[in-house]
Amino acid sequence: MKKIIFSAVVLTLITACAGIGGTAKQVDPIAITNTENFAGHNTVLIGEFSVTFVTFDKTSATAKSSMFSSDTGYASSAIRAKLEGVPDEVMQNITDAAYQDFKSQLSANGYTIGDESALKGNATWQKMKYDDSPRRNTSSFKMITGGSREDATFAPTGKKLLSKNIGGMIPYEAYDAANQLQVPVINANYIVHFVYFGSETEYRSNAYSDIKGAEYSAEVSVGQGIQVVPGSGINWMRGASSTFSDPNGQILIQAPVVIPGAYGSSEDSTSGLQKAANVFSSVLGAVSGGSSSAKDINITANPSEYKAKASAALTEANKRVLGALAAAR
C-alpha cells in the first residue's frame, strides 16, 4: 500500500523557516560579469529601460522514490497564480517613476548621461527593430500544460522596446553601435513578480518497518509579496565580443529584492473540472501508486498598494545595481 499526500497552500505574508543542524547559505545580492570593463567610465548612454510585470506563473513539486528504488509511485502537487486588478496605466506609472529614479541615481553616482540623439543618429543603431509598449507574453497550450509564465513589458512613456533575438538576446547591432560611439551603452530591464512560491517534498520507504509500501508527500505554497527577481539588471555594452576579448559586462540582481506583505485579496479559482480531476487522480493513485493535484489562485490587487510596493522594490533594485556599477568604476 502506498500513502500519497499532496496539498496546495495559500499564504498572505512572507514567512521564514529554520531547521536544526545548519544555516541557509547566503546569496550575494549582486552578480557582476567582467568587473574590469566598468572602470574609468563617467559618461554613458541609455539604450533601453524596461520593466517586465509578471501576471501569471506556476510552480509544482513531486515526491518520488530514489533513483535506485524499484518503487514507481509518486505524489505531485501544482499551484497556478494569476494577478488581476492592476491596469496598464498603473504599470506604466511604475515604469516611468523607476526610469526617472534610474537616471537620478546614475547622476547621483557621478555619471553623465549622454543625449539619446547620439544613438538615434548612429546608422548601425538605426538598423534595429522596435516593438510597441507594452509587449505581452501569453501562455500556449494552457488547457494541456496548465500554462507558462505570462507577463507584460513596459518602456517609459514615449519610448519603444528593442526587439530581441531568440532567447531574449540583445541584437549584435547594439554592441557594434556602442563600439562606434566609444561610449558605454546601458540596457536595463527589471522583472517584477507578484508572488513567491515555496515547495516541500518527502519520500519515506517503509521497507524495514511493519508498514507496507511507501509514503509520498508533496506540498506547494504561494504568498503575496512583490519582488524584483534574479536576472534583473543592466547590460553594459562597449563592443562586439570574440573568443579572446569581451569588452562588455553585466550587473544583475542575484538575491531578489523583496517587499513583503499582502497588497490584495487571494481567492481559490480552481475550476470544477480541475477539482474533479484531482479527486479522480487521488482515487486512481490508491491503486496505481501515483497521483497529482493542481490548484488555481487569483490575486486581486489594490492598485495603489501594488504600485507602492512595486515602486519601493524597483527603487531598491536601482540602488543595488547602480551602487555596484559605481563601485566597479
Automatic annotation (TrEMBL):
<feature type="signal peptide">
    <location>
        <begin position="1"/>
        <end position="18"/>
    </location>
</feature>
<keyword id="KW-0732">Signal</keyword>
<protein>
    <recommendedName>
        <fullName>DUF3313 domain-containing protein</fullName>
    </recommendedName>
</protein>
